[in-house]
Design a protein that fits this description.
alpha/beta, Rossmann fold, 2 domains, five-stranded parallel β-sheet, 10 helices, elongated, disordered N terminus
């Protein structure tokens, strides 16, 4: 790995010659969900800004990476500082993580170019940028074409990352201007019940086996959310559940929903269809609660509990002292 330092007012020429580049915002060395995927979409080249960027660059292992320590920089000032460095990059790709979604429109405004938000695919050629945008909670794909340089946010889980490579790393020192900007009062950890599924370390999922035909499905999933919150977990569901309207589509786990790789995944009444398991990534531990001992979800689990999922959920809620 080669590390080169660019002093204030300077930057590596290569940073201006690439046609596509990933931009990743890092907090204390922690990469956001989808970071490796935007690097793959941008041709294995990335610029990391924030805090702990050197460690994050080493973890990503891109073929070429630039990193700048900008801890405490206000968003508008950071966008203004980055604009001269990125003005000739035709496609800048950010993960559609909370920081990415917040910063992308600011950067697009600073560069004076369009923003293609919530893309599942993006490509650049001699004539412009083409992308597929996900709309209506993933139920509609819209193909768009832009004849000018663009900023793109990529949906986490939309594509496979590349294997790490022992590439070059350049350090860039940015002069972030002061001016009228939003003042950051505090950075709060997300509540488990509302945080992005892709970033959750613990996920409790519900499937069709959790609901009996004579029961209140909405109440069942309210109970599931309450139990998950007590466990410090985020709630997810299968496509059957989100299509029925019992949980919102942003809670759907699967190839047409959100891809996750939590430390712990507890599946209540989830049979384990390929569409669902295809979005599980590599969870460290999986617990399956299902009456079918031979279902795919139980077969892939570290611990399989062969019992009624609804009854176990109610017992767990009673022992935890939670109400929906």
């Amino acid at each position: 790995m080669t590390v080169t330092t660019a002093h204030k007012g300077e930057h590596p020429v290569e940073a201006l010659q690439v046609s596509r580049l990933a931009l990743v915002i890092v907090r204390a060395g922690v990469l956001p969900a989808g970071a490796a995927e935007v690097v793959a979409e941008a041709g294995n080249r990335v610029l990391l800004v924030g805090s702990g960027t050197a460690e994050a660059a080493a973890e990503l292992g891109a073929a070429r990476a630039w990193h700048a320590e900008t801890a405490g920089a206000a968003p508008a000032g950071l966008a203004a500082a980055l604009a001269p460095l990125l003005q000739d990059v035709r496609m800048i790709v950010l993960p559609a993580s909370p920081d990415g979604r917040d910063f992308a429109p600011r950067l697009a405004a600073a560069l004076g170019r369009p923003l293609l938000a919530w893309a599942t695919e993006a490509k650049v050629d001699d004539e412009g940028v083409s992308a597929t945008l996900s709309r209506l909670d993933g139920r509609l794909d819209v193909d768009v074409r832009c004849d000018e340089a663009c900023v793109v946010t990529l949906v986490p889980g939309a594509r496979n990352p590349l294997p790490p490579s022992n590439g070059e790393v350049f350090e860039v020192v940015l002069d972030v201007p002061h001016g009228v900007d939003a003042e950051r009062l505090a950075v709060l950890e997300p509540h488990p019940e509302t945080m992005d599924l892709a970033e959750a370390e613990r996920v409790v999922g519900g499937g069709a086996g959790l609901v009996r035909s004579d029961e209140d499905a909405v109440g069942t999933f309210a109970l599931l959310r309450a139990v998950a919150a007590r466990l410090g977990a985020t709630t997810g569901a299968t496509r059957v559940i989100t299509d029925a309207g019992w949980m919102h589509h942003d809670r759907q786990i699967g190839t047409t929903g959100v891809s996750i790789s939590p430390d712990l995944y507890i599946a209540f009444g989830v049979a384990g269809a390929s569409q669902h398991t295809g979005g599980l990534g590599s969870p460290k531990h999986v617990v399956s609660v299902n009456t079918d001992p031979a279902c795919p979800m139980t077969a892939m689990a570290d611990l399989g509990l062969v019992t009624d999922a609804r009854a176990l959920l109610e017992e767990l809620a009673d022992r935890l002292g939670v109400q929906p």
